[in-house]
Each structure stands twice: as C-alpha cells, then as structure tokens.
Amino acid sequence: MDNYFRCISYIYICKSFTFVLILIAGLLYAWRKGALQWSYLLITQTMKRNKKE
Hints:
Layout: H1 2-33, H2 38-52
Organism: Daucus carota subsp. sativus
Catalytic activity: a ubiquinone + NADH + 5 H(+)(in) = a ubiquinol + NAD(+) + 4 H(+)(out)
Main location: membrane
C-alpha cells in the first residue's frame, strides 16, 4: 500500500511540473511577442491618437 501512494505522489509531482512548464512557456512566448511591454503600448497608442488628430 505504501508503494501505491508513492507512485501516485510521483504522478502528481510530474503533472504539477508539467503545468508549471506550460505556464513558463506561455510567459516566455508573451515576453518575446512584447505583450509585457506596457509602457511601449501606451506610447504607441498615444502616437497613433496624435497622428489621427
């Protein structure tokens, strides 16, 4: 019975590790696309508004 719980705990550790890796991959993707550059977005939006006026 002890071996059963040890096996299940390893499975959940692997699932948790996979989940964290997916989160990190998403964060890196957003970072490379520039989605985390909020100040850049504000500047470009302001410049676009000024061009329209």
